[in-house]
């Protein structure tokens, strides 16, 4: 977590350019009219599925519109062709205007949608400059250090905070032979095959990528119920999972045409009984891992591991990598061979946004100091307090016995 200061408004590019045409879409009709060009740009630029039209529309319809947001989709064209797009929504806070990406911000891995080519950075700077006229601060849920958005942010942001996360990636597309990828990870093919044989002793085993709408919705509801029960059993917060708008967001993505939606459900069946699911987001080059769960009755057969292994094989056949997202969980360490950084930013687009960025920097600094304090305290307790306490208990026992 840190706070950086960059170039301000005065040193930005001149917006008067006769070649590129910049506009802002602020109505739903214009939003929907962008769909064909939007998805064509996604396919050509190679961005994740959470930046596609269907994802943005579902987030707007089921979350951001109801929260008081206003559309602010920045569009750049060259000779009528879409070459740059930044889908944003604007919220009017009490004392400032905040921009956020269109979508479901807890999951979104964002970048600027810009056509590849020599003008890529120039178009990205134009998108940023236009955003500066639309809001005071910008929230970026997740972005890569190598992304165009990060490069532009480093050049143009008045000030920004940065919260760093580590994501785990299965880089399967780097290996032509799937067996060679397995040699780079801890996960054992023999162990997975044994678990599948044991599960097959109960009857038929089937793994599917759900295609029928009714089946997708049934699997989604089962997944959310299982996940909620697991979280409650662990005493953990459910976050978005228990919210009706989140369920509606996912259902809307599963009911549109499969080719238009990035959301997929992989399911594992035993005797036609659903026992495990993976909900993922499919992009042009990457698969993003969202929710996984299984029926605890079948836990001795490792149904989650069986399904994860199939996901690896499926991703390899699609020549995609799998991003298992932030968080250190055992199966991620077993399945992945690469780690990468994800940054979360709150950015001051104008000087008026500085107080809110400063407040966020204070909050992040407090959390960082508190985390270090707790880790240090845990180290002291485990290395010093507990050994001495056990030693004192042994001495007391010996003294009692001696009497």
Compact overview of the structure:
The protein is of the alpha+beta class and 403 residues long.
What does this structure look like?
This protein is of the alpha+beta class and 403 residues long. It is 43% helix and 26% strand. The protein is built from twelve helices and 14 strands. The protein has helices at 28-33, 35-45, 53-64, 120-132, 148-156, 178-182, 189-200, 213-234, 244-255, 303-318, 330-335, 354-402; strands at residues 2-5, 20-25, 70-78, 81-92, 97-101, 113-114, 137-143, 159-170, 205-209, 263-270, 273-282, 286-294, 321-326, 338-348. Strands 1, 2, 3, 4, 5, 6, 7, 8, 9, 10, 11, 12, 13 and 14 form a 14-stranded mixed sheet that branches. Helix 3 runs antiparallel to helix 9 and helix 8 (213-234) runs antiparallel to helix 9 (244-255). The protein starts with a strand and ends with a helix. Mean pLDDT is 89; it is low at 3-16.
Q: Which key features would you list for this structure?
A:
disordered N terminus, 14-stranded mixed β-sheet, 403 residues, 26% strand, globular, alpha+beta, single chain
Number of strand segments:
14
Order of helices and strands: EEHHHEEEEHEHEHHEHHEEEHEHEH
Kindly report how far apart the N and C termini lie.
58 Å
Using the alpha-carbon principal axes, give the shape.
globular
Low-confidence stretches: 3-16
Overall mean pLDDT score? 89
């Amino acid at each position: 977590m840190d706070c950086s200061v960059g170039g301000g408004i005065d040193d930005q590019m001149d917006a008067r350019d006769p070649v590129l045409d910049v506009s802002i879409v602020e109505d739903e009709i214009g939003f929907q009219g962008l769909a064909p060009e939007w998805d064509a740009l996604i396919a050509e630029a190679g961005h994740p599925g959470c930046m596609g039209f269907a994802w943005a529309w579902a987030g707007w319809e089921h979350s951001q519109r109801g929260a008081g947001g206003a559309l602010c989709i920045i569009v750049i064209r060259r000779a009528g062709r879409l070459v740059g797009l930044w889908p944003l929504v604007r919220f009017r806070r009490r004392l400032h205007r905040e921009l956020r990406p269109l979508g479901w911000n807890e999951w979104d891995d964002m970048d600027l949608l810009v056509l590849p080519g020599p003008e890529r950075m120039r178009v990205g700077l134009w998108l940023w400059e236009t955003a500066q006229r639309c809001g005071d601060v910008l929230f970026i849920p997740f972005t890569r250090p190598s992304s165009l958005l990060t490069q532009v942010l480093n050049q143009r942001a008045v000030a920004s905070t940065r919260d760093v996360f580590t994501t785990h990636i299965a880089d399967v597309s780097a290996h032509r032979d799937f067996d060679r990828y397995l040699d780079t990870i801890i996960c054992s093919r023999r162990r997975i095959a044994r678990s599948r044989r044991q599960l097959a002793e109960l009857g038929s085993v089937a793994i599917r990528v759900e295609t029928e709408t009714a089946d997708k919705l049934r699997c989604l509801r089962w997944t959310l119920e299982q996940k909620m029960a697991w979280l409650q059993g662990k005493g953990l917060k459910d976050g978005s999972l228990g919210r009706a708008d989140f369920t509606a967001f996912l259902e809307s993505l599963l009911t549109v045409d499969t080719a238009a939606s990035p959301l997929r459900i992989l399911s594992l069946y035993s005797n036609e009984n659903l026992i495990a699911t993976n909900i993922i987001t499919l992009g042009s080059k990457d698969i993003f891992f969202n929710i996984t769960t299984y029926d605890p009755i079948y836990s001795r057969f490792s149904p989650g591991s069986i399904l994860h292994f199939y996901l690896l094989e499926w991703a390899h056949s699609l020549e995609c990598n799998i991003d298992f997202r932030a968080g250190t969980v055992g199966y991620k360490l077993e399945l992945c061979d690469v780690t990468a950084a994800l940054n979360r930013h709150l950015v001051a687009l104008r000087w008026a946004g500085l107080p809110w960025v400063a407040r966020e920097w204070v909050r992040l600094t407090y959390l960082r100091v508190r985390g270090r304090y707790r880790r240090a305290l845990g180290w002291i307790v485990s290395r010093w307090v507990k050994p001495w306490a056990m030693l004192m208990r042994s001495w007391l026992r010996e003294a009692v016995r001696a009497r």
